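ok so for the tutorial part 2 we go from a plain amino acid sequence to predicted structure tokens. step 1 is just haveing the sequence, like this:
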Amino acid sequence: MIHIPDHIRVLKPYKSGNQVGKQISREAFKQLVNLASNENPLGASPLAIEAIKNSVEEISVYPNPSAPDLVNAIAKHFNKPPECIITGSGSDSIIADVFKAFTVEGQDIVMADATFIGAFVNANKLNRNIVKVPLKKDYSYDLKAMLKAIGRSTRIVYLANPNNPTGVMATKSEFEEFMKEVPSDVLVVLDEAYYAYSGEYDDCPNGLDYECNNLIVLRTMSKSYGLAGIRVGFAFGPKELIDYMYRVKLPFEPNILAQKAAVAALDDSEFIVKTIDTNKRNLTKLKVFFSKVGIKHTDGKANFTMIELKDGDTANKFAAESLEQGFVVRPLGMFGLPNCIRINSGTDEQTDRAIKVFENVIAKLK
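step 2 — the prediction. this is what the tokens look like for a chain of 366 residues:
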């Protein structure tokens, strides 16, 4: 019999926000409005789509392992040295590289007890010890408690900002005070997957503004650029740390079409402006609606908000009733928040329809 390591035996397969799609055909799923995965409701950057079309004949050739064209495009766009940048197949892949490069089995990674599930997945599959720190009652980070959780075996503190699934953001002053107290031999991983949205707020820290020897900043093309399906993530950090990450990353990621699309998308400023404006309008609509009907919700600073219902059963019924009426939302039991639902903004038309549906669902649940 093949031996299965204990830490693998207890793992459960990851379930995405659109997991309902496994129960119906892909075509049927397309008829639903997916407000569960924080995707861009406008689709992908048109320039990225064109770049993919123009690059299809290149798929017979392995991509350059260091993705120089993409790295240089990122360096130019963000005004950072290319030697301080690494790319991968989405933020999940980059997180795995960080954990592999800077920790060994049994060492501690500190993170909130409800945060991006990809961080938990990667830590668990690598048999790292997760030290969970509860969120505050308002679902914000308890940064002081996270500092206290750092011990002798701690190698990494993972911080998604704004946090997923809550949408709550640690402010610039909070983050700066936190970084002052983190020991210099503990690496802080600042996951800024939603910075295109949160960066519109004056009190949002921009990880790229900080030159710290113990800070790695993550970004992704999945959200605002609309490239979730082709998986492109990247990280910024001190050259020495990036060099070690290159030693553990898979050699041919992102794939050639993903690299071409990402380079093109970085130049699509018109699409990004439209994306941000669409989100501002429609996320505000959702938050105003939930306030009006008396449903507690977070003041999400990304492209989603999180609502709190009275218990897990009510949350599951809310999700099921919404699905019956054509809208997919994200129950958060898997995140340790069984009475909560995450809902991302849609287009103007989608959000207006969603609000009518949610109004009907809430009336049914009373």
